[in-house]
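*Target chain*
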Amino acid sequence: MLQHKYLPDYHFNEKHGIIISSSPSKVYSIICELDASSSWIVRVLLALRGIPRDTTAGIEGWKKMGFTVLEQKKDKEIILGLIGQFWKVSGKIQPCTAEEFTSFNNPDFAKAVWNFEITQQGENQVLLETETRIFCPVETIRKKFGRYWFFIKPFSGIIRTEMLKVIKRKAEN
């Protein structure tokens, strides 16, 4: 699990999973090209956050939103990183490379990782899990993010579970 490599310590998290009747390679390729806005619920929730629809398609879309691809293990896992002040409307996203993400230590910003992990469960069946972790370097940032997380977490969870459902639908067709 790449989460431990890039953000072993964290203060907030959420995890979701789904069983999919498909191969790891098919699920992986769907994740890489996934258009999150293909779900109307995700589209509405992202629009409410001010995220343009053209930034929701696949890995390139996530990069446009400010995510950094920290690492990819073909057919197994993708991990994305994001640094910002997520509790602010602008988000104050800090562009970085994978190396910069690991060493970034400005106490005014939180760090987040988001992964998709594929685990073979049997012949032609996988468990797809996604986990989001957030690290807040100091108490003042933990409090600011905590207030934001209180309101945003349920909607974040809806987005993640909807994305898993879209992946499942595409993989099983």
